[in-house]
User: Which sequence fits this backbone?
């Protein structure tokens, strides 16, 4: 009786595993991949379309990031806590990666173009790791960028009469082919970050061979 | 003469009662590891961090902060939802239980320094006064570290 129960569970487990695998295949490679309009993950960089300028005033677009693994995150320079913390953390990770950091694109896109013009972005990113690029542009193009990354942001008025921006604080990781690999969330333990970046960089090698 | 003596006696009797009654615990508050990041000019708000420890045996309530550096100082709490969206809002009064330490730390809470009167320059420090519900105050010198600082050590 007991053995039959165990066999029953075993068969159930195998069936469940089979279903999980089938569901995974369906979503990732199977017909589900086409139907998947929005699973909350960023689009591949190759499928995004927006035109911004970097902190040196040069025109930039997502296709320019393809070819090297990328770290992309949203923020604004009037942000007192989350953004400097994220930029400081990323600077630390890049220091830890050493020379390998030069193989990465690291992009900080503002969600507050009204205050973050090219000059403001240049001054701000200048305080952090030199690999970090600051991108800004028109409200409309920033909105298109956020949509591609499935990032959200909204303006919120503060007690002091100013405004602040609520925004997605995750760091998006892409492999060299421009595919979304993973995200580093603001509240996850920071020691997971560098291994995640290394994995995104390894995918480049796998893709190349 | 007799009247004066009686008043003095009354005052003497009342003094210790007032001292403990008026400052129920805030004299046992210890602020440690305070630090802040340098600002770019004065248009952006600044942020300061610290650990607030209640070394006493009564709960204390932090009700406000003041500094000559900023026109308005307030503790803000950051919350990040399931979609990864971070929102910041005033934390309100903070109750600190006996022997408890509240960490005002990056990503959790920060002292938001609004409308800076002068830029926060690396290497300087500024006084920040914490006000408690019992009327007590604790003033701490907050060192200003670099913009990319990640903790009290820099």
Assistant:
């Amino acid at each position: 009786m007991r053995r039959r129960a165990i066999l029953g569970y075993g068969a159930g487990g195998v069936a469940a595993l089979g279903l999980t695998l089938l569901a995974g295949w369906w979503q990732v490679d199977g017909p589900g991949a086409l139907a998947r309009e929005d699973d909350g993950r960023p689009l591949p960089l190759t499928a995004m379309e927006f035109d911004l300028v970097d902190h040196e005033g040069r025109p930039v677009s997502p296709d320019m990031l393809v070819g090297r693994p990328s770290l992309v995150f949203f923020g604004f320079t009037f942000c007192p806590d989350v953004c400097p913390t994220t930029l400081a953390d990323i600077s630390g990770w890049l220091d830890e990666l050493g020379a390998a950091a030069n193989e990465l694109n690291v992009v900080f896109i503002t969600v507050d173009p009204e205050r973050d013009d090219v000059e403001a972005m240049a001054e701000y990113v200048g305080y952090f790791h030199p690999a970090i690029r600051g991108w800004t542009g028109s409200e409309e193009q920033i909105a298109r960028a956020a949509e591609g990354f499935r990032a959200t942001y909204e303006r919120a008025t503060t007690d002091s009469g100013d405004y602040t921006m609520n925004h997605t604080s995750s760091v998006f990781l892409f492999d060299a082919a421009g595919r979304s690999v993973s995200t580093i969330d603001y509240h996850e333990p920071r020691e997971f970050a560098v291994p995640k970046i290394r994995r995104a960089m390894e995918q480049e090698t796998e893709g190349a061979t | 003469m007799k009247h004066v003596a009686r008043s003095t006696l009354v005052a003497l009797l009342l003094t210790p009662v007032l001292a403990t009654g008026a400052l129920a615990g805030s004299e046992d508050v210890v602020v440690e590891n305070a630090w802040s990041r340098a600002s770019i000019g004065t248009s952006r708000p600044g942020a300061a961090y610290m650990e607030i420890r209640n070394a006493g045996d009564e709960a204390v309530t932090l009700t406000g902060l003041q500094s000559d550096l900023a026109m308005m100082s307030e503790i803000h709490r950051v919350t990040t939802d399931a979609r990864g969206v971070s929102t910041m809002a005033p934390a309100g009064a903070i109750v600190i239980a006996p022997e408890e330490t509240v960490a005002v730390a990056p990503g959790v809470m920060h002292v938001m320094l609004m409308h800076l009167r002068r830029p926060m320059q690396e290497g300087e420090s500024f006084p920040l006064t914490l006000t408690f519900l019992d009327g007590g105050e604790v003033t701490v010198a907050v060192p200003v570290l670099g913009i990319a600082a990640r903790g009290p050590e820099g």
